[in-house]
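Re: the request from the purification team.
They wanted to know what the chain is likely to look like in 3D before they choose a buffer screen. I agreed to run a prediction and write the result into the notebook, where they can find it.
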Amino acid sequence: MTASLVIRNCRFVNVMTREVLPWELACQGARIIYVGPDASPLIGEQTEVIDAGGQYLAPGLISAHDHNEMTMMSMVPFAEAILPQGTTSVILDPHDSVNVLGVAGLEAMIAESQHLPLHTVFMASPCVPSAPGMEHAGAEIGLAELEQMMQMPHVGGVAEAMDFLGIINPTPERQAMLDWIYDRHLLVDGHCPELRGHTLNNYIAAGPVRTDHESVTVEEQLEKLRTGMYVILRRGSIHEPMLASTLIDQLEDTSGLLLAVDGCISAEDILRHGHMAWAVRQIIAEGVQPLVALQMATINVARCYGLDNRVGLLAPGRRANFILLDNLEQFTVQSVFVSGMRVPSQPHYARFSFAPHIVNTLRIKPLIGDDLRIAAPYAQGKASVRAIGVINGALITDEIVCELPVEDGCILPKVTDDILKLGVFNRYGLGTRALGFIRGFGFKNGALAGSIGQDSQHLVVIGTNDADMLRAANRVIEMQGGVVVANDKRVLAELPLPIAGIMTDINPAELAAKRLQILAQCRRLGSEFDDPIFTLSLAITLVVIPQLKMSDMGLVDVASGQFKPLVVR
C-alpha cells in the first residue's frame, strides 16, 4: 500500500504509553496506515512527505463535554473557530437547543454539522426542563422524545443527567426513562455538584451515570473516581475552584480523568488562546505533566466514550486527526490535520439554511413598565429581601439578605450598594416571570439583557432603572434573540442571535468583535467582571448549580430544590 501522506522528522507522542518516540506516521486518505520508525516503504511518487522539523506529533484534541451554543456559535462557525486550534473531535450536549426547540433542536444541529470536517458525537439531552417544577422550557423531553433522539445519526449516548434530585427520587416518567437507558446499556453523562455518600451512589446507580464535570472540591472528585465515575476537569474562560495538580498528585492512575471546555469559553478567547489547547495549557500551568494533560484530552476521552477505535490516539486504522507542536509545555498548536487533510488557519465553510421555526423562537410581547414592578407588602419604609450574589467568573452564587427602600408600595434597587434589579421572563408564550435583585454586577447606570439564560434560555435583564431595562429587553425581543446593553433609553451595543435565539452563524472574528463591544460598554457602565455576558447567561438562571438562582417561576434554592420568597420580612 502506498501512503497519501507521510510525516517524518517528528517527535511522535504516544498517548498509549506516555512516551515520545522517533517515529513516523503514514496515512492513506482519512486513515492512518502506519506508525513506527520508518515509513519509507509506503512512500510513492504521489505521496506528500512533510518534514516536521523536529516538532511534536500528537493526536487531535477531544473536548469531553461541550455546548457550542454557549459560545453563541452555531455548528459552522464553531468548527471554523476550534479546528485551527487543534480540537478535532467534540462530545456535544445540545441541551440548550433542545430546551428551546425540543427534538427539532438536536435535528437542526446534526443537519448543520453533516458536511463539516469536525468529528462530532452528539448526546441526547434527557433533562428538559433541567429542573422540572422549578422552571419552564420550550419543550419537555420524555421517553418518546429520548427514543427519537437516540435513533438519529451521530448520537452516541445520553447527555448530562442534570436533574440530579429528580433522578435520585424519580417520577414514574423519569423512572421509565432510566429503565429504558439501563436496559440498553447506553452511555450516560452526569451533572451532580456536591453529591456525596449514599446520595451519590443512588445517582450513579440510576444510569449508571459515568461522568461528572461539576465537582467543587478535590475530595468530591476523589469520591466520584472511587465510585466508578470519570471525572471531567473543565477549563476555559471561567474560574474553576481547584488546581488540577491537587487532584492528580493524589492518583497513581489518571486514566479516569478527562478534560473539557464545556462551552464555558468566549469566541474571543478561542481565537486568542485556543480551545482545548488552551485547556491543556491551563492545567500544565497548574502543575500537571504535559503527557498526562494530553492523555486527558485524547485517549482518556476516547476510551470513556468508546471512540478509541477511531480517534484519541495515533495508530493504524484510526482517523488521521493530528496536530504538530513546537513545545509540549507551551502547547502552541502549529498545524492541524483532520482526516489526513491540513486545516487552513482561517477555514470557511458553507452556511446552513435554517427553517423559519428555528429562527423565530421568542414568543413574548414587548415589556411595559408594570412588568418590572416589584410589589412590597407595605407602602413605605424598608424591606428585607433575598438577592442573588454573583462572583466574577463563577457559576456558583450566594444568597444575600439586604435591606432595600420601599416607595409607593414598590421595592426599589439600591445602586449605591450594588443591588440592582433583576428580571427573568418566559420567552415561550406562557407569560410567567420572576423579579428580584442581584448583587455584585457593578453597574452604576444602564441595563443588560439577553435571551441566553441557561438552561431554559429565558429573557434575562439586569439594570439600575426600569427605563433602560425595558429598552434593552425589548430590543432583544425585536431581534428575535440576542444580547443588548442600554443606557439613557438608548442601545449602546447589541449582538443578534437569531438561531434559536441563542446562536449566530456569522464568522467567529465578527462575533468576537461584537462581544467585545458589549463588554466595553458594560465596563463603561461600571461592571468590573471579566465577562458580564457569561454572568448573565450562566450565573443567574442555571437552577442546577448552587446556591440561589432565579427561573421564570421564582427564586430557587438549588440544594433543596425549593422556591424561596423574595421578601424575608
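For the purification team: The radius of gyration is 24 Å.
Please add any questions underneath this entry.
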